[in-house]
Amino acid sequence: MILLSEPDKEPDLAYRHVLRVLDAVEPQASEADILEAICYVKSPENGRLAKAYWSDRDMSIQLTVNLVEQLPRNANFEWEVVVKLPDCDNEQDDDED
Fold first, then answer.
1. Parallel, antiparallel or unpaired: strands 62-67 and 34-41
2. 81-90 pLDDT, tens per residue?
């Protein structure tokens, strides 16, 4: 989705979406469990906006910005996060029986 009136708000909107997806997929995980973030952008200017957004969040998580030709729904930003999942050592796999 493109927000032509306020392009500097787009990184936040897209990042909030990835957090909602994280919550839906793994409810026990939180933003504190993110190990790495990747932001796909369509222009160098959007890359600068993504880096500024990440810097303003004051997070010690590594950010990688990748320039791409096209994104879904003609978006300018698309986030991907790598998350440390909750400890699964106490769960047994049914295949082990």
1. parallel
2. 999 987 755 5
